[in-house]
Amino acid sequence: xxxxxxxxxxxxxxxxxxxxxxxxxxxDRGQFEFLSLEVIQCGLNWTMxxxxxxxxxxxxxxxxxDTVAAFGSEDxxxxxxxxxxxxxxxxxxxxxxxxxxFQRVRAEFGSFDAYLWGFSxxxxxxxxxxxxxxxxxAPLATRFTRRHSRRLRRS
Length: 155
Hints:
Number of helices: 8
Structural class: mainly alpha
Mean pLDDT: 87
Shape: globular
Distance between the termini: 40 Å
Number of strands: 0
Low-confidence stretches: none
Largest sheet: none
Radius of gyration: 17 Å
Helix content: 55-70%
């Protein structure tokens, strides 16, 4: 198998590349986990996220969105005190807020999966014509992203 330019030596990154990256996902818990990892990752690197993933799973109840949505200030303090956790109150609170939003989306659409995949009519979209690794050649927006950005703002 050929590998992307990002981290080709770290075993955990290689396993992520081979088993998860770019693989369509139709599981609400798994989608909530990836959404949460993106929140935590902001400003940091993905390799660190993969290595701390088990800490995050412990802190956020295995990314059970119903459990996380019920978290309060004591849970925030518990998470902040967890060894190995990224100590960002804002990120932790954002994940809890996202869990509440996740519940609202599920109530309206039946599942987060149905909501998310509804943007592409259930189809995987492959982008060709520019290099992901040369960001200067990637467009800032496409017709698809503009349309769905408007939809997300209404949600």
